[in-house]
Design brief:
Layout (H helix, E strand, L loop, with lengths): L25 H12 L2 H6 L2 H16 L4 E5 L1 H18 L6 E5 L17 H10 L7 E5 L6 H13 L2 E5 L6 H5 L2 E3 L15 H21 L15 H15 L3 H10 L4 H10 L3 H10 L4 H11 L1
């Protein structure tokens, strides 16, 4: 694995392929950006073993009642907040299970608060404010790998005994030395020098998607390729829930709609009613006892009869 220059991190170096991008016509700019982006997926492919090890370790923590935190500054922090916010509606889990922390607070999601990333103690303080413990897992996201806020948070978490992961685009950087597992998709210099919202950000988005999705699959919140815990918060999701219920329980559309109505639109409850022949209240109680995992709830009902 190549080492980054000490004075100029890989993410800050100039890209010779795009040195004349400002003189290109619009389509030329877009074509060059697209060509650079094409290599991001390959960079992620190279780190799949590290992602896999992180997923398995995180899943164990969450299965034992721990939580997953993402922490970062700027684009890295925003991507963590985004991925965490998608978990409850997609997998039906508590908003506490996966949390995103960004330097400068949630205001930094829509307005740059860049100076906050230079405070090495602030990351640890923000973790403590969320009640972070050694039972939890932390993914520190920092494209350059040297953001004081994020590195400080990872060092603090590891000292507590929590499981720590570094997600960066610079090998041998400070954050890789702080974390137990380092995920380093090397995407090279950006199209615009230092603008890590581009290739590095794309790689981070891909990896975070993989981590949260694979962890939820391992925990049992997906059956086949269906989101069996999806929350029916709008018309589109209600229709999706009806289709999932029909397919999973072998029902026609009308019957699926009827059962989902009787479950007050709660898909896991409706699925459990269909598969375990139980009442809505029995299903809800079994799901609560099983942390929303359908397979475990079915076993819970079988044992209680």
């Amino acid at each position: 694995m190549p080492e980054a220059a000490e004075s100029t991190p890989l993410t800050e170096q100039e890209n010779p392929r795009t040195a004349q991008i400002s003189s290109l016509p619009t389509e030329g700019i877009l074509r060059l950006m697209n060509e650079e982006d094409a290599g991001v997926a390959n960079a992620v492919t190279e780190v799949l073993p590290e992602i896999g090890r992180a997923v398995d370790r995180i899943a164990v923590r969450l299965d034992q009642g721990g939580r997953l935190f993402y922490i970062g500054a700027g684009t890295s922090g925003r991507l963590g907040v985004l991925d965490a916010s998608e978990c409850p509606p997609t997998f039906g889990v508590s908003s506490d299970m996966v949390q995103g922390i960004i330097a400068g607070g949630y205001e930094a999601c829509y307005r740059a608060v860049e100076a906050s990333e230079d405070d090495a103690a602030a990351g640890a303080n923000d973790l403590e404010a969320r009640g972070f413990t050694k039972q939890d897992a932390l993914v520190g996201v920092a494209a350059s790998g040297r953001t004081p806020y994020t590195v400080g948070a990872v060092e603090h978490a590891r000292q507590l005994g929590a499981f720590t992961v570094a997600l960066t685009s610079v090998p041998g950087s400070a954050i890789t030395k702080a974390a137990e597992i380092s995920i380093v998709p090397i995407v090279g210099p950006e199209v615009i020098a230092g603008s890590t919202r581009l290739k590095a950000g794309t790689a981070q988005k891909l990896v975070l998607n993989m981590i949260s999705t694979a962890v939820m699959i391992r925990l049992g919140y997906v059956r086949g390729n269906r989101m069996t815990n999806v929350q029916t918060r709008n018309v589109k999701l209600r229709g999706r829930a009806e289709r999932i219920l029909a397919a999973e329980a072998g029902l026609n559309e009308a019957r699926a709609k009827e059962i989902l109505d009787s479950a007050d639109g709660n898909l896991p409850v409706a699925l459990l009613m269909s598969r375990a022949d139980c009442s809505p209240s029995e299903a809800a109680a079994a799901l609560k006892a099983s942390r929303g995992v359908l397979a475990q709830a079915i076993e819970f009902i079988k044992k209680s009869r």
